[in-house]
Amino acid sequence: MKWKNSPPLQSYEAFFDAIELKLGDKLRAEGIKPQLFGYTWIEVASLEYVYFSISGAYKSTGEVKKALFYRLLRMAGIEEPRKFATDEDRDYLLEQYTSLKLRPGVKECFQKLRDAGFTISCLTTGNAEKVWGFFEQGDVDMPMENITSVSLKFWIISEWVHG
Predict the structure, then answer these.
(1) Contact at 8 Å (CB) between 42 and 36?
(2) Angle at which helices 87-97 and 13-29 pack, to 10 degrees?
(3) Cα torsion at 22, 28, 32, 36 (round to 10°)?
(4) What is the 3-state secondary structure (H, E, C) of 92-148?
(5) Hey, where are the domains in the chain?
(6) How far is CA 51 from CA 48, 124, 128, in A?
(7) Is 2 exposed, middle or buried (CB count within 10 Å of its CB: 0-12, 13-18, 19+)?
(8) N- or C-end of the chain: fewer Cβ atoms within 10 A?
(9) Measured distance between the N- and C-terminal CA atoms of the chain, rounded to whole angstroms
(10) CA–CA separation, 3 vs 22, rounded Å?
(11) How do residues 30-61 score in pLDDT, each as one tens digit?
């Protein structure tokens, strides 16, 4: 059986819509697709989060995303990122990211799996309580004890490796 990288349970639609609202026209004028900028921001932040975590310099995913914003604009070709966008733009986008919703069909999928005898667990690089909130908001039963934040695991491994 060939395993594929599964998409997250939450939809990034609200985040992409926020980028469109705040910076869409400006990004397109520079030849940058807003959704691609958003997806790149998510992916690069995830990668850098892992690097920080295993190097012993733990930073939360929110801190990493915040710090990465202007650098990513620069890497996308924006000559003066701080003139192109403001801290208020960045903070609004980060706020919208924290209000993501579950993808359609998650509740039904989980129920089918449970009906077939499966126990559903969730791994996240984020905050377990925040992830639990996604499930609660989407009216999906997910016991808190079934959600594990691997960020804590990275921290424990880092502490063990780096003393």
Answers:
(1) no
(2) 150
(3) 60
(4) HHHHHHCCCEECCCHHHHHHHHHHCCCCCCEEECCCHHHHHHHHHHCCCCCCHHHEE
(5) 10-101, 102-162
(6) 5, 16, 20
(7) exposed
(8) N
(9) 40
(10) 37
(11) 999 999 999 999 999 988 887 887 777 878 88
